[in-house]
Write a structure and sequence with these properties.
The chain is an alpha+beta fold. The protein contains 4 helices and 15 strands. It is globular and about 45 Å long. Bound molecules: 2-amino-4-trifluoromethylsulfanyl-butyric acid and cobalt (II) ion.
Length: about 250
């Protein structure tokens, strides 16, 4: 069931989205060679608390931290660790969910650490551009798979692949609400995929996770960290979007 948000709920989500944006801004200067992924987690947690908001990932299905920090071939749900020191040339995706009085905003950015290769910068840029390609289709009356198709075309047009085992989602009082947001168009012979028309008051997370090589992933023995099977590196870019009768509103920028 897709939950339509009231103006009051959207306002609470907007405030959470502003804190997401502040965190990403701060991480721009914090992320450099020599810091650990646990340092990122501390900054996310303390910035949420400063604003009287909750880092909603902590405790979600037993998840142990306030952010997901996924390095290089890690795709999503990497667990922050004081021993995981970032090195020059690494890339790290930081995925956060901020909760404000029961309502949430969810976003992710991938950062280069120090000097990164042109190929990895292209990967990071493409994840972001794919989000904005999808955003163009986030209009009331459009069908959700138009968003999916537009994201996929951008990613594959740049020579990368879309991770298929994880999707975007609706968001609001729950971190993951209906509908699932695919970042590719599934083959309808094999998968049954909801394809609702978008309408005013829906809140969606569009979050392309993309990789250099094949899209198959494994989950490590920590039960969380998803890595590409072939070791190719991955990038992830996400924002929370409110559907309106006009242009979509992105609340986590
Ligand atoms: N923020 C992630 C998403 O984009 C979910 C993280 S799962 C958690 O949906 F357990 F870490 F919270
Ligand atoms: Co999300």
């Amino acid at each position: 069931m897709i939950v339509i948000k009231s103006e009051h709920e959207i306002e609470l989500m907007r405030q959470a989205g502003k804190v997401c944006a502040e965190i990403f801004e701060g991480l721009n200067t914090i992320i450099k060679p020599g810091i650990s992924t646990k340092d990122i987690d501390h900054y996310v947690e303390s910035t949420c608390k400063k604003h009287n908001m909750i880092p909603a990932e902590k405790g979600y299905c037993g998840y142990p931290a306030s952010a997901c920090t996924s390095v290089n071939e890690e795709v999503v749900h990497g667990i922050p660790n004081a021993k995981r020191i970032l090195r020059d040339g690494d890339i790290v995706s930081v995925d956060i969910v901020v909760e404000n009085q029961g309502l949430m905003a969810d976003a992710c950015r991938t950062y280069g650490v120090g000097q990164i290769s042109q190929e990895h910068q292209h990967l990071i840029d493409t994840a972001k551009e794919a989000f904005f390609a999808g955003l163009k289709e986030c209009k009331a009356g459009n069908r959700l798979l138009q968003v999916s198709k537009s994201v996929q075309n951008k990613v594959e047009g740049e020579g990368f692949n879309v991770i298929r085992d994880y999707t975007g989602h609706g968001i609001g009082r729950d971190m993951h609400e209906d509908p699932p947001v695919f970042h590719y168009v599934p083959d309808s012979r094999y998968e049954r995929v909801p394809n609702p028309r978008l309408q005013k008051g829906m809140a969606l997370c569009v979050e392309p996770m993309i990789c250099e090589g094949d899209w198959e992933v494994d989950v490590l023995l920590d039960d969380w960290t998803a890595v590409t099977c072939d070791g190719g590196w991955a990038a992830h870019y996400e924002n929370t979007i409110i559907i309106t009768d006009g242009e979509p509103e992105v609340i986590t920028l």
